[in-house]
């Protein structure tokens, strides 16, 4: 009997879990072993981090990674030290080495608050300076919000790219709602601070979302390149000399790739792995594919991208192992629900070449969802997504949404 | 109608001193008038006066400050800087047009 | 006489408008010879000796009550007068970006409600006031507001938002009243950017020292 081919997946998050389950269903049980490595056993529903400060019970976003993986997928709980490409081995922090024939890197991105002067090392960290990109951060922010009744709030993005680029906007809308409902909105001054020149990266969405900020009486501080956080004066200081005072700073720290990616010489300066954006294959090693946020593809770092990309990836992977040309080309399709407060949400649908446009989704005119316009249906869609995520997405069931973006129902802006 | 004489030029004015005949105006006259209110006309000044002449030639009335901005593309703040105090009145006088009557 | 040197003082008998500059310079030198269209400054010994100032207090949020102060303030700015506008009570609606493009004009309580256009229907009708009860008809306020906006537009009077931009660019000083601002639970981010601050009535009285005060 010949040796089994070994597939090693680094990371059991959204992309890693989906890839493992999809491939387990595709690859021959007797010919392929699939092993997933992660540093802990807790799978977190990251879209939930946005809601924890407001209403979601923290424990609701956590499940055991092992229960989410199909039978026939092995799980190794260990932190990764580095990838040795020449030997096709992955070295773990505890010294063990796992060999592979094919490697999928799905290790995602992490917020690194140590990169900004006065953020993680400041006296105000987790006191008046908060983030909601980690479980701990989100829970701490919940407490901070509960005790906040008056003052200035800054909702701040340090730099792009970040995971889920609309999340800070959603937070701004939700926190606005939060204080309206408490009846103290007039005592709270909210400013959205971004390094971009508007509310979002793409023009049509930027105009719509910018209008919504104005509608909710949220100020916009654009082109703000943060230099440091002044912990004594409670100010956010930009390189151009602008200073914004705050009583509560909700920041999104710089998002970087995992340390082992950099240590293995696989990452760019931010720790993301350069890949061919249509095949997600490493540009330096044909035995390595990268799924989810860990790659450098020029689209949003979001679960929807991981989902669409993984569906394209499965066929490509099988073809690659058989030495055939890769059949599928990923178009960068992303699909984001944007909570806009007041029990409504907007929907963005876009890819590498098409910016988010207005219209209806997924069916022209009938919708039922509205693109780039707040509606109740979108909001319910966002809430329903939690169950879809656990029950359909991760197990690898196909959703009735094409992994390629469709122009049906979208309206191009008039020239 | 009374007349004014300045540096060898004689021109008809109304009781407040605004020119009454369009054709009496020249950029040289504007420069001489400006000296009386301590203004040295720069190219920026002249651009505003030329616009006022052209615009009034079609509309028949002295443009308001707001029109200077919306149609002429001049920033109102700049106009206040160029003609301190009473920009609309000064510009009308210097460009040989009637005193502005509109409120805005 | 050479014309190569430009003169900087008007010749004898020269008629020119009053630009307000000369009277305002600290010590007008003996310019007795210059001719007389320039009104001389009053010589009463007022405590205040700065430039002429006007202070407007806007306390109403009706469309027809918003314009007078804005128009007068703008005219004053055009005359080189320092202008301060204090918005209080419903006047805050004029500088609230959530409401300022939606101010209303209503017939109710306005007996001066007669329409020039009706004269074309039957001469004389243009001077007849509308019955007050008409103001209570549904849709009447919307109709009257649209009418007024149209008439203003024909006169090239800008909308309230544009007007505030204009005043801001012309250097008007605008303030919101602290007490009513708090009372109405306004949000600072909603104020027109030309508003310099939310200040108390006392602060405004200080600012208005020496000003002519106009209450609307």
Automatic annotation (TrEMBL), chain B:
It comes from the Bacteria. InterPro entries: DsrC-like_C (IPR042072), DsrC-like_dom_sf (IPR025526), DsrC-like_N (IPR043163), DsrC/TusE (IPR007453). Its main location: cytoplasm. Gene3D superfamilies: 3.30.1420.10, DsrC-like protein, C-terminal domain. It is found in: Cytoplasm. Keywords: Cytoplasm. It holds the Pfam family DsrC. Transmembrane segments: none annotated. Belongs to the DsrC/TusE family. This is Sulfurtransferase TusE. It comes from Ornithinimicrobium pekingense.
TrEMBL record, chain C:
The lineage of its organism: Bacteria, Bacillati, Actinomycetota, Actinomycetes, Micrococcales. Residues 25-38 have a biased composition (Low complexity). Pfam families: DrsE_2. Residues 1-38 are annotated as: Disordered. It comes from Ornithinimicrobium pekingense. This is Peroxiredoxin family protein. PANTHER family: CONSERVED WITHIN P. AEROPHILUM, PEROXIREDOXIN FAMILY PROTEIN. InterPro entries: DsrE2-like, DsrEFH-like.
């Amino acid at each position: 009997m010949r040796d089994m081919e070994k597939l090693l997946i680094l990371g059991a998050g959204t992309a890693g879990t989906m890839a493992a389950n999809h491939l387990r269903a595709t690859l021959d049980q007797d010919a392929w072993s699939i092993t997933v490595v992660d540093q802990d056993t807790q799978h977190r529903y990251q879209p939930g981090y946005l809601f924890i400060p407001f209403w979601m019970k923290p424990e609701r976003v956590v499940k055991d990674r092992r229960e989410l993986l199909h039978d026939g997928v092995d799980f190794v709980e260990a932190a990764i030290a580095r990838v040795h490409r020449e030997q096709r081995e992955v070295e773990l922090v505890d010294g063990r080495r796992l060999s592979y024939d094919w490697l999928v890197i799905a290790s995602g991105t992490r917020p690194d608050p140590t990169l900004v002067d006065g953020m993680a090392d400041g006296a105000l960290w987790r006191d008046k300076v908060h983030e909601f990109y980690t479980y701990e951060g989100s829970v701490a922010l919940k407490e901070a919000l509960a005790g906040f009744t008056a003052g200035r709030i800054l909702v701040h993005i340090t730099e792009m790219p970040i995971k889920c680029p609309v999340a800070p906007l959603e937070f701004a809308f939700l926190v606005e709602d939060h204080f309206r409902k408490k009846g103290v909105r007039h005592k709270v001054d909210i400013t959205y601070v971004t390094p971009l020149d508007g509310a979002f990266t793409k023009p049509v969405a930027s105009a719509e979302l910018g209008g919504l900020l104005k509608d909710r009486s949220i100020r916009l501080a654009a082109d703000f390149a943060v230099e440091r956080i002044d912990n004594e004066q409670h100010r956010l200081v930009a390189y151009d000399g602008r200073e914004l005072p705050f009583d509560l700073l909700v920041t999104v720290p710089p998002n970087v790739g995992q340390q082992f990616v950099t240590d293995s010489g696989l990452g760019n300066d931010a720790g993301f792995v350069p890949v061919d954006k249509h095949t997600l294959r490493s540009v330096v090693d044909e035995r390595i594919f990268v799924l989810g946020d860990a790659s450098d593809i020029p689209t949003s770092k979001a679960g929807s991208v991981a989902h669409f990309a993984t569906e394209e990836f499965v066929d490509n992977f099988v073809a690659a192992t058989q030495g055939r040309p890769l059949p599928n080309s990923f178009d960068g399709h992303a699909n984001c629900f944007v909570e806009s407060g007041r029990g409504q949400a907007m929907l963005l649908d876009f890819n590498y070449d098409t910016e988010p446009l207005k219209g209806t989704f997924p069916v022209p005119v009938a919708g039922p969802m509205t693109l780039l316009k707040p509606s109740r249906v979108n909001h319910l869609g966002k809430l329903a997504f939690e169950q879809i995520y656990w029950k359909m997405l991760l197990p690898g069931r196909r959703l009735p949404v094409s992994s390629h973006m469709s122009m049906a129902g979208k309206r191009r802006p008039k020239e | 109608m009374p007349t004014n004489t300045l540096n060898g030029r004689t021109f008809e004015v109304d009781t407040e001193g605004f020119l009454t005949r369009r054709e009496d105006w020249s950029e040289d006259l504007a420069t001489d008038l400006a000296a009386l209110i301590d203004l040295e006309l720069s190219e920026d000044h002249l651009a505003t006066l030329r616009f006022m002449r052209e615009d009034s030639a079609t509309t028949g009335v002295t443009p308001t400050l707001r029109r200077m901005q919306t149609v002429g593309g001049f920033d109102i703040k700049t106009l206040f800087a160029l003609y301190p105090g009473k920009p609309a009145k000064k510009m009308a006088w210097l460009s040989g047009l009637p005193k502005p009557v509109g409120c805005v | 006489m050479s014309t190569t040197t430009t003169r900087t003082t008007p010749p004898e008998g020269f008629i020119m408008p009053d630009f307000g500059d000369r009277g305002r310079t600290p010590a007008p030198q003996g310019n007795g010879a210059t001719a007389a269209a320039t009104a001389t400054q009053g010589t009463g010994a007022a405590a205040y000796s700065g430039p002429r100032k006007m202070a407007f207090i806007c306390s109403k949020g009706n469309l027809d009550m918003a314009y007078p102060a804005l128009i007068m303030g703008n005219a004053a700015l055009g005359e080189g007068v320092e202008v301060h506008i204090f918005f209080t009570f419903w006047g805050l609606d004029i500088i609230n970006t959530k409401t300022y493009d939606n101010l209303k004009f209503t017939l109710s309580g306005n007996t001066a409600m007669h329409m020039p256009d009706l004269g074309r229907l039957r001469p004389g009708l243009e001077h007849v006031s509308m019955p007050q009860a008409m103001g209570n008809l549904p849709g009447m306020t919307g109709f009257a507001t649209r009418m007024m906006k149209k008439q203003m537009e024909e006169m090239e009077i800008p909308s309230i938002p544009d007007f505030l931009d204009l005043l801001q660019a012309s250097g008007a000083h605008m303030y919101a009243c602290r007490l009513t601002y708090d009372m109405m639970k306004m949000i600072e981010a909603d104020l027109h950017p030309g508003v310099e601050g939310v200040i108390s009535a006392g602060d405004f009285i200080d600012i208005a020292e020496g000003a002519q005060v106009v209450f609307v």
